[in-house]
UniProtKB/TrEMBL annotation:
GO terms for cellular component: endoplasmic reticulum. This is 17beta-estradiol 17-dehydrogenase. One of its GO terms (biological process) is steroid biosynthetic process. One of its GO terms (molecular function) is estradiol 17-beta-dehydrogenase [NAD(P)+] activity. It is an enzyme of class 1 (oxidoreductase). The lineage of its organism: Eukaryota, Metazoa, Chordata, Craniata, Vertebrata. PROSITE patterns: ADH_SHORT. It is found in: Endoplasmic reticulum. Its main location: endoplasmic reticulum. Its EC number is 1.1.1.62. Keywords: Lipid biosynthesis, Lipid metabolism, NADP, Oxidoreductase, Steroid biosynthesis. InterPro entries: NAD(P)-bd_dom_sf, Sc_DH/Rdtase_CS, SDR_fam, VLCFA-Steroid_DH. Belongs to the short-chain dehydrogenases/reductases (SDR) family. 17-beta-HSD 3 subfamily.
Length: 280
């Protein structure tokens, strides 16, 4: 399909079942595109998420399109008592590829920490605990087989602290650091652990930002990101985001933490809301 040579390598290197997860629109779309491609290479699929209707719809699409079998596991990753159930459901399956891409953003609009909406503990379970627990469940068998691929979806805002998005950027920074450390530990055992750090992708979670050279549609990002799988332990997933990351790394830390930075963020999103209110 998009990258047949790459996916043929997937099928040769990794065995039957691809375990993945996602609970928001961005994650689900990433699943649908990437898993359809992988399923065409003879890989079966496990989908883990909280919304049964979405799981069933994606499962039917994959099965009809590719002929591969799809197993559904319905759980809510904002809870921390779900992993024994997942473990039981995965019994007997040889997981060759794990995609940890579940995630939640407290608010698309910037806000100070004490004004963060929603349940902070739910965000921690969803963005951090899920990555640790799912990796713990799957990595042991990968280690014994001495092969496997784990893709952890972080964010460009993990690369340095982002004021007004403190909880989200910090949780994604954990995913980034955790992934890099694990790759150092398990690379010699034949396991690839890669972290993706994308910037803007137009989805429900980002309030469907207008697309441009930097802001990608979910489809665009998925197709390009597959080019970078298995070529390194860290990637932004697309060339435009790699360039943006390089530019942002040149900004001194004092500028990022200044009140001017906060003002620019707030002004940008105030203008964004005004523009959207005119078009709705």
């Amino acid at each position: 399909m998009y990258f047949p040579a790459l996916l043929e390598r997937f099928a040769k290197v990794f065995p039957e079942v691809n375990g993945t997860m996602g609970s928001d629109h961005w994650s689900g779309r990433w699943d649908r595109e990437s898993l359809c491609i992988r399923a065409r290479q003879g890989l079966n699929v496990v989908l883990i998420s909280r919304t049964l209707e979405k799981l069933q719809a994606i499962a039917v699409e994959i099965e009809v399109t590719t002929g591969s079998s799809v197993k559904i596991i319905q759980v809510d990753f904002t809870k921390d008592d779900i992993y024994e159930y997942i473990k039981e459901e995965l019994k007997g399956l040889e997981i060759g590829i794990l995609v940890n891409n579940v995630g939640m953003l407290p608010s698309f609009l910037p806000s100070h920490f004490l004004n963060t909406p929603g349940d902070i503990q739910s965000l921690i379970h969803c963005n951090i605990t899920s990555v640790v627990k799912m990796t713990q469940l799957i990595l042991k068998d990968m280690e014994s087989r001495r092969r496997g691929l784990i893709l952890n979806i972080s964010s460009g805002v993990a690369l340095f602290p982002w004021p007004l998005y403190s909880m989200y950027s910090s949780s994604k920074a954990f995913v980034y650091t955790f992934s890099k450390a694990l790759q150092a530990e398990y690379k010699a055992k034949g396991i690839i652990i890669q972290v993706l750090t994308p910037y803007a992708v137009s989805t429900r979670m980002t309030d469907y930002l207008n697309t441009n050279l930097i802001t990608k549609t979910a489809d665009e990002f998925v197709k390009e990101s597959l080019n970078y799988v298995m070529i390194g332990d860290e990637t932004c997933g697309c060339l435009a985001h790699e360039i943006l990351a390089g530019f942002l790394s040149l900004i001194p830390s004092w500028a990022i933490y200044s009140s001017m930075f906060e003002t620019l963020l707030l002004t940008h999103y105030t203008n964004y809301l005004k523009q959207n209110s005119h078009t709705s």
